[in-house]
Amino acid sequence: MPILVLTTNPANPKLEAELVRAIHAQIGGSVNWLHQSIAVEFKEPKAPQALQIARQVIGDEKVDANLVPDQKRRKKLLIADMDSTMINEECIDELGAALGIKDQIAQITERAMRGELDFEQALDERVLLLKGLDLDAIKEVRRERITYAPGGRVLVQTMKAYGAYTALVSGGFTLFADYFGKRIGFDESTANILEFDGDVLTGTVARPIVDKDTKLAKLRSISAGRELKLEDTMAVGDGANDLMMIKAAGMGVAIHAKPVVAEQAQYQFIHSDLSALLYLQGFEEAELIRQ
After folding, report:
1. Out of 60, 64, 83, 136, which one is annotated catalytic?
2. How far is Cα 114 from Cα 78, in angstroms, rounded to an integer?
3. pLDDT tens, position by position, 63-105
């Protein structure tokens, strides 16, 4: 039987008991609070259109609703995008800011993430604009301009504590993915390699490019290497280059995503933070690893 999961942003919880009662009155089933005011699940709802009913009742409230199967909810592999997913920013845009061309680069990034531009071509075009930027400036951007997405560390640390393997796979750059991946707690990270002449960017990226095909291949190769089925995996991202891995994973999640991704992902979060991916798997607050 399916399970309806409601979540909200822990920083501004909007999941009121009155709303839960209103939904319960229409869909039935048993109510189990995973985290008071933040996450609740309805087990074995009686209404066949439970998800649609819940979303109608929720209306404009900042609450997300998703319907999950009751079997194999807890995943054994997490594959995650980095930019605008595990961190709040697009690193390449912030590198552009260091040269005073953030808006120019951000426009290309936005179109690429919406799936309007070829990813490799868009990456080459943007990196060329960064030619001449030195390593110290890049490290300063990494230190001063990048912030962690809320809920990311508890997501990774909790899944690892319960036996999952975690991989960060980014269309961004190793200088950021290796650094932030380690600090968030990922077991491994994969990203594009910027090329340097000494300590200065040449404006080029090493081949092969980490793109949508790479992300899907990584999901499949890690799964095979760990003798997992794709149904045992979770993938999360926000951009068009994440869509293939999101659709292939057993639990594919779009978070704060571009429309083309949100429309096609099996699960989506508009308001919740990354900890919602744990509630989707049935974790309760007492099980979460916060360190």
Report:
1. 83
2. 23
3. 999 999 999 999 999 999 999 999 999 999 999 999 999 999 9
Q: Which two tokens mark 191?
A: 């990203």
Catalytic residue, from 64, 81, 93, 238: name it.
81
Active site residue 81: yes
Mean pLDDT value of segment 164-181: 98
C-alpha span between 279 and 252 (Å, rounded): 14
Cβ partners under 8 Å of residue 174, min gap 6: 189, 191, 192, 193, 194
Q: Taking the CB of residue 17, how many other CB atoms lie within 10 A of it? A: 12
pLDDT digits (tens, 9 = 90+) for 249-262: 999 999 999 999 99
Contact between 150 and 10 (Cβ < 8 Å)? yes
Architecture per CATH, domain 74-89+148-291, reads as 3-Layer(aba) Sandwich (3.40)
- CB atoms under 10 Å from CB of 61, counted, come to 14
Q: How far apart are CA 69 and CA 280, in angstroms?
A: 10
From the number of C-beta atoms within 10 Å of its C-beta (0-12, 13-18, 19+), residue 192 rates as buried
CATH of domain 1-71: 3.30.70.260
76 with 228: CB under 8 angstroms? yes
- Rounded distance between C-alpha atoms, residue 267 and residue 253, angstroms: 5
| Backbone φ, ψ for residue 164 (5° rounding) | -85, 155
- As a whole number of angstroms, the distance between CA 258 and CA 238 comes to 6
